[in-house]
Amino acid sequence: MIEETLKKTVIAIVGLLLLMGALGWAFQKELVAAAEWVANHLGFPGIALVILIGDSFVLPFPPDSMLVVVSRSHMAANWWLYVFGIGAVSAWAGIQGYFIGRWLEHFPTLHRVFGRFRDEHGPQLRKYGFWWVVLGATTPLPFSVTTWTAGMLQLPLTHVAAACLFRIPRFFIYYGVIHAGLGLFS
C-alpha cells in the first residue's frame, strides 16, 4: 500500500509540475493578477484561514492553491516565512481534524458505517498510525480525512500531533514544485 501511494505521489507531483508550468505559461497575467488580488485582499490571515478550513474539513479545492498566491504575489519576497506559517497552520488544522474525528465517532450512523472500516483496518492503522498520518500529511491524500480517521480510531494525540508536523516540510517541497512549475515556461 505504501509503495503504491508513493508511486502515485511522485506521479502527482510530476503532473502538478507540468500542470503548473502549462497554466503559468498560458495564464501568466491572469495568475499574477489573481494572486496579487488574494494577497492584497485576504493577506496572510485570510490565507491562513483558508488553510485552516481546508485542512480541517473536506473542500473541493486543495489548500496547496494558496502556495500559488505566495509564489505569484508580493509575498514571494518572504516566501519561506509564509510557507512556514501555512505549514504550521495546516499542522494545527490536522490536530483540529483529529478532534473532529473524535466528535464524529459519537454519531450512531457514522459509528456504524465507520465500525466496519475500523473492524477491517483498525488493528493495522493503530499499529502504524503515526506513519499512516505522516503519509496523509505528506502526500496528496485528503489530510482532513486522515486526521478524522485518526480521531475516530482514537490514536494517541501525541502521535497524531507529531505526524501533523510533517505538513511543514511538505509545504516547502510543494512550494518549490509549484514555483518551479509556474516558472517553467515563463
UniProtKB/TrEMBL annotation:
InterPro entries named in the record: DedA_domain
Record keywords, A-Z: Membrane, Transmembrane, Transmembrane helix
GO-annotated cellular components: plasma membrane
Domain of life: Bacteria
Record flagged with keyword GTP-binding: no
Keyword Magnesium belongs to the record: no
Record protein name field: DedA family protein
